[in-house]
From TrEMBL:
UniProt source species: Conexibacter arvalis
Signal peptide interval: none
Domain NodB homology: 27-265
Gene3D superfamilies: Glycoside hydrolase/deacetylase
Domain of life: Bacteria
PANTHER family found in the cross-reference section: POLYSACCHARIDE DEACETYLASE FAMILY PROTEIN (AFU_ORTHOLOGUE AFUA_6G05030) (PTHR47561:SF1)
MF term (GO), any: hydrolase activity, acting on carbon-nitrogen (but not peptide) bonds
Residues spanning the membrane: none
The protein, known as: Peptidoglycan/xylan/chitin deacetylase (PgdA/CDA1 family)
Gene Ontology process terms (BP): carbohydrate metabolic process
Family annotation (InterPro entries): Glyco_hydro/deAcase_b/a-brl, NODB_dom, PgdA-like
Length: 289
């Protein structure tokens, strides 16, 4: 019997923090985009998820939890997963170990104090990790990460201690007790739909929703046909997918998933499901599959 596909609807609930932290934008207009994310888009998405009776994962910075506690409590009360996404949408790249620890701990503290949540999952802001990140996630008790791209529709064990040599083969570090739920920029709504101008950074998505819908449904159909029991991991941002007609894209994705008999799982559920039948972890220097 062919195993059912899994769909993980992941929302990076950045709120205000993404604009100053990632783009250096602190003006009133940028802040208002974060306010739209929390006050308008997130509740709109919650209503859709309730109507469709599907669960999702909200990767949420501690700053969002503290700034918009009411909607964060609604997310938890509805049975959705809250996962770690930094404190102020900080990229771990460029942080020394002490600073990265401080960001992890500050995010954990906010989630615990405001929501009573101890997250099992983590997604790095901007999909980037430091050399210390995966090892620290294991140390702090995380079960999974969702920041890397070595697979498209199959989880795998994350590693630590990789070494990039420019004069000989890449050196693969040992696998960790940390499930990696892979991501992809092509299954991320932000570069497809958002416009940001903050020199030297420019994001000029602004695609019409139909194009994005065709991309995503095409990948979902391919996974169902070619990767039995695959995990379709989405990265969406309430401020992007939750504006106007873009909501129809999310509706279409859910409808197509139901047509395929997919199971809508939180990322934590998908990670634990994979862990239950996962291959043994490999030691240092083992090449990736």
């Amino acid at each position: 019997m062919t195993p059912a596909p899994t769909i993980c609807l992941g929302f990076d609930f950045d709120g205000i923090s993404v604009w100053p932290a990632s783009f250096g934008l602190t003006g009133a207009t940028a802040i208002s985009r974060g306010e739209f994310c929390a006050r308008v888009a997130a509740p709109r998405i919650l209503r859709l998820l309730e109507r469709e009776q599907v669960k999702a994962t909200f990767f949420t910075p501690g700053h969002t939890v503290e700034s918009f506690p009411e909607v964060c409590r609604e997310i938890v009360a509805a049975g959705h997963e809250m996962a770690h996404h930094g404190y102020f949408h900080e990229s771990p790249v460029g942080l020394d170990e002490a600073a990265e620890r401080a960001v992890i701990e500050r995010g954990l503290e906010a989630l615990d104090r405001v929501l009573g949540v101890r997250p099992s999952g983590y997604r790095s802001p901007a999909f980037d990790l430091s050399p210390n990140s995966t090892r620290l996630l294991v140390e702090y008790g995380f079960s999974y990460d969702s920041s890397m791209m070595a697979q498209d529709f199959e989880p795998y064990w994350a590693r630590t201690g990789d070494v990039l040599h420019q004069d000989r083969a890449f050196e693969f570090g040992p696998e960790l007790d940390l499930v990696e739920l892979p991501v992809s920029w092509s299954l991320d709504d932000f570069p497809q739909l958002e416009f940001v101008l903050s020199p030297p950074i420019a994001v000029a998505g602004m695609n019409e929703p139909g194009k994005v819908e065709r991309m995503w449904l095409g990948d979902l159909d391919w996974m169902v046909e070619e990767v039995p029991g695959g995990v379709f991991g989405m990265t969406m941002h309430p401020q992007s997918i939750g504006r106007g007609a873009r909501m129809r894209v999310l509706e279409a994705l859910i409808a197509r998933g139901k047509h395929h008999g997919a199971r809508f799982r939180t990322c934590a559920e998908a990670a634990e499901q994979w862990r239950s039948t996962a291959p043994a972890r490999r030691g240092a220097h083992a090449p990736a599959a």
